[in-house]
Amino acid sequence: MDKLLAVVKREYLERVRTKWFIISTVFGPVFLLAIMILPSLLTMRGMQSAGATNFRIIDATGAGLGPLVAAQIRERALNNPLRNIPGMTRRADSTRSVAEAQVVGVAPEAVAAAESTATLDVMASRIRGYLILDSATVASGKARYAGRNTSSLGEMEQVEGGLRAALLAQRLEAAGITGARADALAKVRADVSTERITSKGRGGSGIASLVFGFVIAFLLYMMIILYGQNILRGVLEEKTTRVAEVVISSISPETLLAGKVIGVGAVGLTQQLVWLAFACGFSAYGLAMAASLGAVSVTMPQVSVLQVVALLLYFLLGYTFYAALFAAVGAMCSSQEEATQAAQPVMMLLVATIILVQPILTAPTGTMATVMSILPFSSPIIMPMVMSGTQVPAWQLAASLASLAIAVYGSIWLSARIYRVGLLMTGKRPSLKELARWVRYS
User: Fold this and answer.
1) Cα–Cα distance between 411 and 229 in angstroms, integer?
2) Band (120; pLDDT cuts 50, 70, 90)
């Protein structure tokens, strides 16, 4: 036991004290949030500043549709919820008035001439674009837009939304519903909030549970890959530098393997706890932003003690299962190139699991979710995600943990025998027949 603890302590401190561990632990979440949130913030800022007002409406409908469209677009620009996000609005944008688009009423036969004039104005940067409304717009809602800003999703959404609302208001008026009543009916919105209910009662927001489950699955996937390959590289380095020959003269290969798996796993668990604390602190800002956007009130998912224990068990068992396999791969290879090729089957198990995350999220109670949550190679990632989205039957949870525990025992048993022989073997990578001989005689 003392030797095992010595190996665990060495593996843990050797990695925790490195600069790269500190940088990845502290700045890893910052970098991850930056690449996830910064593009969204820039997109929202572009949509927030998208006024869609510096353009011309060429109205050839003869029904006064142009002024209605211009008024609807201006109202959408003023009521853009992204304008209310703290720190998102530039000072120049916050003081800028939103004017209505230019409306030019023409006869149907004069549309071509008005379009040519508008095209010249766009080329001279006097306007950003122009919208053509004609009889087809009134009949079927079809319109044409041309300009420099056609790639701006925010502005095009405002133009389409304004046209849709104006057409609806006009048709309501034609049906005898006039004035403020038509305007109120045109602005009706549906906003459905979701809440999960389990056998123990209400379980928080359904959307929040969905996001929580996906985040948990992704973090487990990343940790298994990162620290599993970390063990592979560590075993390969000790083998190629002949350090293992000195170490196993005073300690058994099985104890050395167990110490490596436990030590590196403790490093991963430490990093996970730090990232979890960071995520809890950041959630307050995310909820405040959602509230400023006028989004549905989001409540945090309720996580029971059983779920916390289950998440911890799946992390430890799943990591141990894959870490033992990666250690065996490192012991049987003599170079990084060989290890990369030999680790492909193990990596394919993980990749095949993460590929199925999206279809399982859409149907967490389906047959695929049930099967993948019981299979040992996928259950460490799939079952925590399914548990976050729906209530899992007791038999399914028991079967999943039992199959994973059996698989962990089998992977440790197999890897220990390959590790015992392969750690001192050099030369070409062994074949399957030779690996079977190692397992049989070790």
Assistant:
1) 16
2) very high
Domain with CATH 3.40.190 in the chain: 50-186
- Alpha-carbon span 351 to 417, nearest angstrom: 26
| Mean per-residue pLDDT, 206-232 | 75
Residue 334 is classified by DSSP as S
CATH class of the region 50-186: alpha beta
Statement: the pTM of the whole predicted model exceeds 0.70: no
Cα–Cα distance for residue pair 201/203, rounded to 1 Å: 6
Helix (H, G, I), strand (E, B) or coil at 46: helix
User: HSE on the CB side for 412, CA within 13 Å?
Assistant: 20
If you write DSSP's letter for every residue of 364-412 in order, what string do you get? TTSHHHHHHHHSTTTHHHHHHHHHHHSPPPHHHHHHHHHHHHHHHHHHH
pLDDT band for position 117 (50/70/90)?
A: very high
Q: Residue type for 192, please? A: V
Locus of tokens 């056998």 = 199
Residue 191 to residues 20, 188, 289, 296, 301, Cα–Cα distance (Å):
46, 10, 18, 7, 20
Reference 320, options 442, 441, 220; nearest CA is: 220
Name which of 386, 388, 383 is nearest 402 in CA terms. Answer: 383
